[in-house]
């Protein structure tokens, strides 16, 4: 189907002899938000990291745009400009200012014009309400501010697809809202996203599709509405009832 | 006081000769440090790659220079290379080569230690914005590890300066060699000349090395505060 941005087919991932992701299959449609849910240790982060080559996978294939990726794929580096990723621990470069963090990719990887990249960076900083921190260092920012900068850093590369790996898990509760609002804004603008989260209300509100992962297997795949209103499997029902939301 | 031993230092051109000898030692140390720093940085970065063959070779290189005493290295290069491999270099150049290779070996370990102590999350973040491997080292890993490397590097510099005192063994006219010549030449007139000449050399080395040692200690303390802060 032409509307698919990403297709994962029979993906398998091993750690040594242990298989940790088993026969994973799913698609991500352009402009949609897919939320990956599941208990801790179910393989959510490992799966999302396989999608931009931070983890190797050992079986199956990934199709992203017109690229076919099979185990041992070596050309991740140019592809990563199209797949932005934001991590749980922000991971801004502490030795660079906010603006230098943001411009490193556009200037050094994409070799873009400095004024053009700077204008875009400033526009995005304005949208996340952090314009005045352009020349601050990461250590001068709060967790929530750092995470919003990390999102801007990924967006300035103009990716076609965004991966969010538990981006609010390290934040104080009052910081969470600001970060989630930024992601909601992206969803409203039809950015294609795959989101790993434990924020159930947020997931419920944002998900077009939910993948429920347990022990390295997708045990349920359904629309966001259906998953939260009428989960199909007992495991998903138990999971939802154990979550406080 | 007509014969106070200290006068040995001011007899004829003795002071100028001693300082000249110090300059030879310093020159060898400076060249070795500059070359060793650059080479050590490259080798240290290479040691963090996941290439097993490269790692073994570089590890052997490090161990060779670490295990073999510096005196033996100097003899090895000064006597064996010219005889058996027909490589002829002056004593000073040979000393620069030995010290540079030694410095590079030790430096590579400092660099490797610094780089691997940068959080793997930083590597992920760098990769995620599309940096290639060289860019990852240049923009992320090396700048973040330099602060960790500085105190150990200063200590290494101070060790190199001190070890130049072995240069007399391969007939380099360094400060110690000249000091000995002065003591021997003036032995009859200055019975305790050795005390004053070596005392003076001690002070020269102390002036060179002690500030370095203080600086390294200051940076180490600062690092602890930064890490905790």
TrEMBL record, chain A:
The yes or no answer to whether the keyword Cell membrane is present is no
Question: Which CDD domains does the entry mention?
Answer: ABC_HisP_GlnQ
Q: Which UniProt keywords apply?
A: ATP-binding, Nucleotide-binding, Transport
Q: Which GO terms describe its molecular function?
A: ABC-type amino acid transporter activity; ATP binding; ATP hydrolysis activity
What the entry lists under SMART domains is as follows: AAA
Q: Has the keyword Disulfide bond been applied to this entry?
A: no
- Ranges for domain ABC transporter come to 6-240
In which domain of life is the source organism classified? Answer: Bacteria
Family matches, as PANTHER family: AMINO ACID IMPORT ATP-BINDING PROTEIN (PTHR43166), PHOSPHONATES IMPORT ATP-BINDING PROTEIN PHNC (PTHR43166:SF4)
Q: Which family does it belong to?
A: Belongs to the ABC transporter superfamily.
Q: What is this protein called?
A: Phosphate ABC transporter ATP-binding protein
Species: Paucilactobacillus vaccinostercus DSM 20634
Automatic annotation (TrEMBL), chain B:
User: Which cellular compartments is it found in?
Assistant: Cell membrane
GO MF annotations, alphabetized: transmembrane transporter activity
As given in the record, the signal peptide range reads none
Output the Gene Ontology cellular-component terms: ATP-binding cassette (ABC) transporter complex
User: Which superkingdom?
Assistant: Bacteria
GO BP annotations of the record are: amino acid transport
Q: What keywords sit in the KW lines?
A: Cell membrane, Membrane, Transmembrane, Transmembrane helix, Transport
ABC transmembrane type-1 domain spans which residues? 22-216
Q: Which residues cross the membrane?
A: 20-46, 58-81, 87-105, 166-183, 195-216
Bilayer topology: Multi-pass membrane protein
Q: Which PROSITE patterns does its entry note?
A: ABC_TM1
Please tell me where this protein is predominantly located. membrane
Similarity remark: Belongs to the binding-protein-dependent transport system permease family.
Q: Which PANTHER family match?
A: ABC TRANSPORTER MEMBRANE-SPANNING PERMEASE-GLUTAMINE TRANSPORT (PTHR30614:SF36), MEMBRANE COMPONENT OF AMINO ACID ABC TRANSPORTER (PTHR30614)
Q: Which NCBIfam families match?
A: HEQRo_perm_3TM
From the Swiss-Prot or TrEMBL record, give the protein name.
Polar amino acid ABC transporter inner membrane subunit
* Organism field: Paucilactobacillus vaccinostercus DSM 20634
């Amino acid at each position: 189907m032409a509307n698919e941005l990403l297709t994962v087919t029979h993906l398998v991932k091993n750690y040594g002899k242990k298989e940790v992701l088993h026969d994973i299959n799913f698609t991500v449609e352009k402009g949609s938000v897919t939320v990956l849910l599941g208990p801790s240790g179910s393989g959510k982060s490992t799966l999302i990291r396989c999608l931009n080559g931070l983890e190797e996978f050992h079986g199956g294939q990934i199709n992203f745009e017109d690229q076919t990726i099979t185990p041992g794929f070596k050309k991740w580096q140019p592809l990563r400009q199209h797949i932005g990723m934001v991590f749980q621990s922000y991971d801004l470069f502490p030795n660079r200012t906010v603006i230098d963090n943001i411009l490193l990719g556009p200037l050094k990887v994409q070799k873009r014009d400095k004024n053009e990249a700077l204008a875009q960076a400033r526009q995005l900083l304005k949208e996340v309400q952090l314009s005045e921190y352009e020349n601050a260092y990461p250590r001068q920012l709060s967790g929530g501010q750092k995470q919003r900068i990390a999102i801007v850093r990924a967006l300035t590369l103009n990716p076609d697809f965004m991966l969010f790996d538990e981006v609010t898990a390290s934040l104080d509760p009052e910081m969470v809202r600001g970060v989630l609002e930024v992601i909601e804004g992206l969803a409203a603008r039809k950015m294609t996203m795959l989101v790993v989260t434990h924020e159930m209300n947020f997931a419920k509100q944002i998900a077009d599709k939910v993948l429920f992962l347990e022990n390295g297997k997708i045990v349920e795949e359904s629309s966001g509405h259906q998953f939260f209103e009428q989960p199909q499997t007992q495991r998903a029902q138990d999971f939802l009832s154990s979550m406080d939301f | 006081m007509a014969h106070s031993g200290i006068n040995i230092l001011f007899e004829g051109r003795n002071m100028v000769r001693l300082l000249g000898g110090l300059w030879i030692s310093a020159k060898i140390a400076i060249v070795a440090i500059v070359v060793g720093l650059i080479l050590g940085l490259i080798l240290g970065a290479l040691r963090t790659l996941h290439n097993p063959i490269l790692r073994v070779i570089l590890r052997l290189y490090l161990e060779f220079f670490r295990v073999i005493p510096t005196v033996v290295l100097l003899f090895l290069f000064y006597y064996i290379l010219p005889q058996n491999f027909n490589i002829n270099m002056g004593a000073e150049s040979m000393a620069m080569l030995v010290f540079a290779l030694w410095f590079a070996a030790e430096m590579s370990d400092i660099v490797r230690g610094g780089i691997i102590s940068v959080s793997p999350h930083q590597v992920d973040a760098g990769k995620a914005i599309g940096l290639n491997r060289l860019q990852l080292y240049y923009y992320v890993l090396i700048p973040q590890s330099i602060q960790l490397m500085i105190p150990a590097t200063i200590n290494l510099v101070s060790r190199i300066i001190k070890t130049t005192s072995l240069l007399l063994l391969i007939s380099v006219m360094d400060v110690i060699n000249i000091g000995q010549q002065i003591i021997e030449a003036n032995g009859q007139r200055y019975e305790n000349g050795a005390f004053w000449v070596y005392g003076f050399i001690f002070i020269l080395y102390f002036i060179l090395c002690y500030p370095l040692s203080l600086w390294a200690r200051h940076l180490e303390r600062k690092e602890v505060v930064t890490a905790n802060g």
